[in-house]
Specification:
four-stranded antiparallel beta sheet, Jelly Rolls
C-alpha cells in the first residue's frame, strides 16, 4: 500500500440563521455583505404570531417605512438566491446590501437565513 498524504482544509462560509424581532420602529435585519465572500442566498420569512403583524422590508441603507418596499404578511417569504444559477457564469448575485424592516405592530418576528 502506498503512503499517500492527503491535506484537508476546513472552510466555513459566512452564514446567518436567526430570529429577528421587529416592532414599529425601523431595525437592521442584516448588514451589507462586505469582503471577499458575497452573499449567495437570503431567505426572510414573516413568522409573526398574528395576521396583523405585517412587516415591510427595505433593501438599502435607508430606514424601512411601513408599506413602502417589500411587504410580508404572515408567513410570506422574500428570497433572493444564486443557488439555482445553472448557467455558472452569468455573474448573478443576490442583493448584497443592508436590509431593514418595520412592522405594523409591536410583535413582528422574522426568520432569517443567509449564506
Amino acid at each position: 500500500m502506498d503512503n499517500v498524504s492527503t491535506t484537508w482544509t476546513s472552510y466555513q462560509e459566512p452564514a446567518n440563521n436567526a430570529s429577528v424581532s421587529v416592532s414599529t420602529s425601523s431595525i437592521l435585519v442584516t448588514p451589507a455583505r462586505q469582503g471577499a465572500i458575497p452573499r449567495k442566498s437570503i431567505v426572510i420569512r414573516n413568522i409573526s404570531p398574528n395576521a396583523t403583524d405585517i412587516i415591510t422590508l427595505n433593501l438599502g441603507a435607508s430606514q424601512a417605512v411601513a408599506n413602502v418596499g417589500i411587504v410580508l404578511r404572515q408567513y410570506d417569504t422574500f428570497t433572493d438566491s444564486a443557488e439555482g444559477d445553472w448557467t455558472h457564469g452569468n455573474g448573478y448575485l443576490p442583493f448584497q446590501g443592508t436590509i431593514n424592516a418595520i412592522c405594523a405592530t409591536a410583535t413582528g418576528v422574522l426568520s432569517l437565513s443567509e449564506r
